[in-house]
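input
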Amino acid sequence: MNARYLAVKALTPLLNNQGALKYTLKKQLQLCPEGQRPYLQELCYGTMRHFPSLEAILDQLVTKPIRKKDVDIKVVLLIGIYQLYKLNTADHAVVSETVDVCKTLNKQWATSFVNAALRSFLRKQEEITTALDNNISFKYNHPEWFVQKLMNNWPDHWQQILEANDAHPPLTLRINTAKVSRETFLSELEEQELQGHHCKYSEYGVTLSKPMDITQILGFDEGKFSVQDEAAQLAAQLISPAEGDNILDACSAPGGKLIHLLELSSGTAKIQGLELEPLRAERIIENFERLNLSCPLHIADATKQDWWDGKLFNKILLDAPCSATGVIRRNPDIKLLRQPEDIHSIAKLQKQILENMWSMLAEGGIIVYATCSIFPQENEKIVAAFIRNNENAQHQEIKADWGTQRDFGRQLFPQQGGHDGFYYAMIKKQTINL
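output
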């Protein structure tokens, strides 16, 4: 049960278009010796982060396509190339121990194949990488369709976005100011010989200087903080829960925004959550228990109303399902799993949910529409079309010092050392005088 073998077990389902890394890796981490867990995570996240480049290299090393039933051997090769190309590991150890994984997989036939491919890369690395200079996937370490779409949508920002996607994300906390001020929390960090600093835009955010096990930070069990990226923290600020509000957080999982709303309201607003997936809802409930918070949580479809009691909401947070292309650095398997046609099918679902939420919103009420996508097709184009098709829908400009102002809403791009990519728009339901 060494790290290389477990990495193959975690990544093979992804190449078969099954699951997501955060779930497949979780299972293998449970089987991994504690001392090898950091290396297992490095192999999995690193291989996925560099997947487009690694696959381009592999195509230069292997003359025939690897059979579908042997996709695990393709993963062995990708992990091996990643170690040789990106990690400071002894070449002979990488080759030897990566070849041994084939034996553990009961594929003895593949040992000579993997050995030859990895040694060929060691001999021809400069020649291979030079030959790939004009290969877009290799050069920019993203799928070609993604790069082309980004260049078309954001001609002034696409390179910055690609670079941020390949950087390691910071660890950002959201401070529960009902229990501790941000300044006091920073002082408590210093007492533990930990370093952090204010987030630039969120008044509740603290970014740690280096990642660590958050359960070891004093105050975790008391609910003084939660992990949440700075961009995501802006959602509750825009909703701004007030006494007497009737608020819905649609598409609630993993629950950070819902919990933030509860913390800010201090029980003075009526708040409900809505989540389709029972397993994802369990995560929310676990956080409720740790933070000693609660609210009605409906396990239901956001395109339907069979869960609703008919009482109109005056504020709805719609963090819509999306391509998650603004959080690739946290979920690098998106580079492998996301396909260009997904954007269209996701946009169709977003429209359905937005229309359904609109029918539950009271006159004078506000919908905050949000995604963690950087593509306009899921963001401002959805909002623009919705406002065009609904005469009682009025765009509300977000006046802020974060993101880029668009005709509809504001777009945040992922920042190295800073926030993720995110989009926000506010839509008010007007009264129509007949």
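quick obs: The mean pLDDT is 96.
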